[in-house]
Amino acid sequence: MSLSEAQTTDDVAALGEIARRRGLRIAVVESLTSGGLAHAVGAGPDASEWFVGGIVAYMTEVKEVLLGLAAGTDPTSPECAEQLAAGGRDLFAADICVATTGVGGPDSEDGHPAGTVYLGWATESAHGHRLLELDGSPEDVMATTVASAVGLILDTLQTADAV
Known about the structure:
5 strands; alpha/beta; single chain; about 160 residues
């Protein structure tokens, strides 16, 4: 297990403990990470008590129909990440949802360089995003995105006013 995998495992255990203790429901929406985030979160201790699920949505049509993405939204943008997170929170009736979207590489897409990633998050009372500008292979970009998204869930749970 690599250092980043060990940190992700530790972060998932910590977020699971907080969610269990506070009775919170966590969901994920993935465009970039292809189920990797759900896999990481779902492997957490007693995940069936706090992880309500995830959705992988690559096609824009799916994002619009299932998650409420506004037509014409750039799929590699803060607006997209936030809308996906809000749509996932509503779809799963979750307390917090984190979404991943961006360009994994190896080539740029639609004017965005490879490694441009947005993480979106949404709770009942707030929403936001983080921009990641990553280097490395597509596998490296995805692994770092998963670890960063898990960290974002944990950070949000640790902010008392956010959830």
